[in-house]
Write a structure and sequence with these properties.
The chain has about 220 residues and is α+β, with helices and mostly antiparallel strands. The protein is built from 6 helices and 7 strands. The chain folds into 2 domains: about 140 residues, no CATH class; about 70 residues, Nucleic acid-binding proteins (OB fold (Dihydrolipoamide Acetyltransferase, E2P)), CATH 2.40.50.140.
């Protein structure tokens, strides 16, 4: 049992699998931190467009944005896209390391074929991720958009350790599962902390955040 575990650890630490092992560890840590309320849960789409014309005409977009559009990596939270790419890439690279890469013990060929496999696995992972999120993206597009400005004036509960002018989240009871909102506060003299009641006083559409103020308990 210990020997099998040691072999597993060795394989996931080999190049190129180590790259995706690191990515998996990163997204896992991100999810844990977000669920514990110690960081913002990123809910911004990777590329906020569903326009097919934008996908076919990439001349006006940056390389990274154009690449994500080409593979259909848009319309869902970025962290979900990164999680899928990491998991798929890790599995494919692990299989490569287990069955093919062992033929190259060291030297130039080890890194040449490893780098080639890394690029191939990354492309395949992005392609498969695009296929997986395609129906999700279409279903999200059919959901009627809620007017976020309607939440202004409501009371929410801070769920992150603190709220500043750069980060913070609060949970709003909407009568259902609840809404996790990005909130900001410019009041540095009275730091908002987890569990504080705040009022949503303004919605900033350009950043999809709410300006909040503390609600004093009577």
């Amino acid at each position: 049992m210990q020997e099998a575990f040691f072999v597993f650890i060795t394989k996931i630490s080999l190049y190129p699998t180590i790259v995706f092992t690191g990515l998996v560890m990163f997204v896992t840590l991100y999810w844990v931190v977000s669920l514990l309320g110690m960081a913002d849960m990123d809910s911004v789409d990777a590329v906020e467009t569903g326009n097919d014309a934008a996908v076919s005409d990439l001349s006006s977009t940056g390389f990274f944005t154009g690449l994500m559009l080409k593979f259909g990596l848009y319309g869902v939270p970025l962290v979900i896209i990164l999680s899928l790419i990491s998991l798929i890439g890790w599995l494919l690279s692990y299989l490569y390391t287990s069955f093919l890469h062992q033929n190259f013990d060291s030297g130039v060929l080890y890194y040449v074929f490893g780098t080639g496999a890394l690029i191939f696995v990354l492309v395949v992972s992005m392609w498969l991720t695009g296929m997986i999120i395609s129906p999700i993206r279409k279903n999200i597009a059919r959901i009627p958009k809620r007017n976020s400005a309607n939440n202004v004036g409501k009371i929410a509960i801070v769920r992150t350790l603190s709220v500043t002018d750069k980060h913070g989240e609060a949970e709003l009871n909407d009568g259902g599962a609840g809404l996790i909102l990005k909130v900001r506060s410019d009041n540095s003299t009275s730091l908002l902390k987890k569990g504080d009641r705040v009022m949503l006083i303004a919605y900033l559409e350009e950043t999809n955040t709410y300006q909040v103020a503390r609600v004093e308990d009577k």
